[in-house]
Amino acid sequence: MLKLAEQCLERAQSTATKLGKICLKPAVPVAPPIPLPTSRHRRVCSDEGGKLSPFLPPEIFQKLQVVESQNSKKELTPLEKASLQNQKLRATYEARMARLDPSQAMQKTSLTLSLQRQMMENLVIAKAREETLQRKMEERRLRLQEATNRRFCSQVALTPEEREQRALYAAILEYEQDHDWPKHWRAKLKRSPGDLSVVTSLVSHLLSLPDHPISQLLKKLQCAVYSALYPIVSRAAISAGPAPGCCSLPPEANGLLAPGSRRLRSSQSLYCMLSPSEPSAAPRSLDGPPSTPSVPTLHSGPSSPLVDASSHLPDKDSSFEDLEQFLALSEPQTPGAKREPLLECLKSTVKDIHNAIDRLLSLTLLAFESLNTAASKDRCLACIEEPFFSPLWPLLLALYRSVHRTQEAAVSRSMELYRNAPPTALGIPAKLLPRVPEAQASTYPYCTAAQELGLLVLESCPQKKLECIVRTLRVICICAEDYCLQSEDTTWSGADDLLPILSFVVLRSGLPQLVSECAALEEFIHEGYLIGEEGYCLTSLQSALSYVELLSQGRLDK
C-alpha cells in the first residue's frame, strides 16, 4: 500500500509539472457567429412552437435506425481481452521505469524483457482461444445449417429471396443458441395456445431486441422503403408550389377542440407535406349567421342531401345504395399526365411495403411455429405493423397527399365555403339536433365526434387510425340517440341519417388530409377488417368525404 501511495504521488507530481509548462494562449476576441447555410432539405414550421421539423435524409434515418443495435453490449473476443491486458501491463511498466534511477540499467532491462514475455504469452494464449472458439462456431454453424436444410426443401436452384430466408432462419437458430428467452416463450404458447395476449407480448418483446435477426430485418426493410420514398416526396414538394414545405392546419381546425384541449399538430402526422392550395373565399365571420353570403345556400329539407343530387345522381331510397357509383361520380376529372409518375411510384411503394410485411410475418412464423393459426397470424400482423409504419408514415402520407392533391383542394374549398352552414342544410333532421342551443359559442352539435376525428392525424399506425374512425362513428351514434331522447322521438333511420351527420362532422373537422389518410388506410388495413365494423366505418367516412368534395363543385347546390 505504501508503494502504491508513492506511485500515486509521483504520477501527481509529474502531471502537475507538465500542466505548469503549458503556456496560456492570449485571449482572442470572439467572432460573431456565421449564419449556417440553408439546408437543402425541406423544413416545416410546427403549429405549436414554430420550430423547424425536417424530413431526415436517408443516410441519417439509417443511422438512427441501427444505433440501438450498435449500442447493445457486445462480448469481447479473446484477442481483444488480451489487448486490454497488454495495455495495463504497458502502463504498469512505464510507471515502474519512471521510478528507477539511470544507474539501474540492469533492472530496466529485466523489466523490459519481463514485459515482452508477458505480452507475448497473452497473445499466444489469446490466439489459441480464438482458434478454438472459431472452430466451435464453425461446427455450430454447420450443425445449424443442416437443421435449416431439414426445415426447408432442398432445391438445386434457389431464388435470392429463398436464400435470404434460409440465411435469416439460420441466424435465428444461432441467436437462440445464445439466449434462453425463446424457449420460455414457446413454453408459454404451449400452455396457452389460444391466448392472444401472449402472442402480443411475444412479438412486442421480439421486436424490442435490436440484436434479434427479425428486428434487424425490420430496420433494413424500413431503411429501404424510406430511401425509395425520400427522393420522390422531395421532388413532389418542390414541384408542388413556391412555398417549400409549409404545412399547417386550416383555420377551422382551431375550433374543433374544446377549450383547454391540446391543439392538433399537423406536423405530427402530415409532417412537411404541402397542404392543398385553398382558394381565397369571400370575407366571412366565424360567428356569423348561417345565412351570410360566404355560405352558399344548400337544400335544407328533411331528406338526405344525397337524394337531391338531381341531374348527377339517380333517385334512391337509401343513401348507401350503389355506393360504388356514387364514389365514381365524385372523382375529379384531372389530367392523367401529371399524376401518372407519382401514381406509379405510389403503386410500387405500396407493393414493396406489402412484400416487406409479408417477409417479416413469414419469418416470425418460422421462428415460432405455434403462431401459425389464423387468429395468431392476424395478431402478429397487427404487432408488426405498428413499429414498421411509425417512422415511415409521415413520408408515406406525404406521397399520398401529392397524388390526391386535387381531391384535397376540393374538400378544403368546401370546408372554407360551408363551415358556417347549419346542420339542417346538410339534410340532418331536426330530431337529431339538440333542442337546447349549446352553452358555449365554440361548441356545436356533434362537437365531440369532430374532436375524436381530429385525433386521427396524430396517429402513425393504420390500425390505430382505423380505431379512431370507429370511435368517431360510435360517438355520432351516442349523440344522435341523446338528441332523439331530447326530442321525445326515439326512432332514427340509422344509415340514411348517418351520412349527413358524418359529412357535417367532416366539414367541422377542417382536415382535408382525411382524403389521403383514408386512401392509405384502405390500402394497408388487413382485409379481415374491411368486412366488419371497421370496414363499414371507413367506407362511411370515404362516402362523406366524397359528398363534401362535391359541394365545392356546385353539383349539390340549389
Fold and architecture overview:
The structure is a single chain. The N and C termini lie far apart (100 Å). With 558 residues, this protein is mostly helical. It is elongated. The chain has helices at 2-20, 58-71, 78-99, 105-151, 160-178, 181-191, 196-207, 213-240, 266-269, 323-329, 336-367, 374-389, 393-403, 405-418, 447-454, 462-486, 495-509, 514-524, 533-551. The protein has 19 helices and no strands. Mean pLDDT is 74; it is low at 23-53 and 242-338.
Compile the SSE list and pairings.
Elements: H1 2-20, H2 58-71, H3 78-99, H4 105-151, H5 160-178, H6 181-191, H7 196-207, H8 213-240, H9 266-269, H10 323-329, H11 336-367, H12 374-389, H13 393-403, H14 405-418, H15 447-454, H16 462-486, H17 495-509, H18 514-524, H19 533-551
Helix pairs in contact: 2-8, 3-4, 4-5, 7-12, 8-11, 8-13, 11-12, 11-13, 13-18, 14-19, 15-16, 15-17, 16-19, 17-19, 18-19
Give a brief outline of the structure.
GO terms for molecular function: guanyl-nucleotide exchange factor activity; small GTPase binding. Helices cover 60% and strands 0% of the residues. It has 19 helices and no strands.
User: How much beta, percentage-wise?
Assistant: under 5%
Query: What's the overall average pLDDT, rounded?
Result: 74
What would you call the shape? elongated
Low-confidence stretches: 23-53, 242-338
Number of helices: 19
Structural class: mainly alpha
From the alpha-carbon coordinates, what is the Rg to the nearest angstrom? Answer: 33 Å
SSE pattern: HHHHHHHHHHHHHHHHHHH
GO cellular component, one term: cytosol
Protein name: VPS9 domain-containing protein
Region (Disordered): 276-314
Biased composition (Polar residues): 294-303
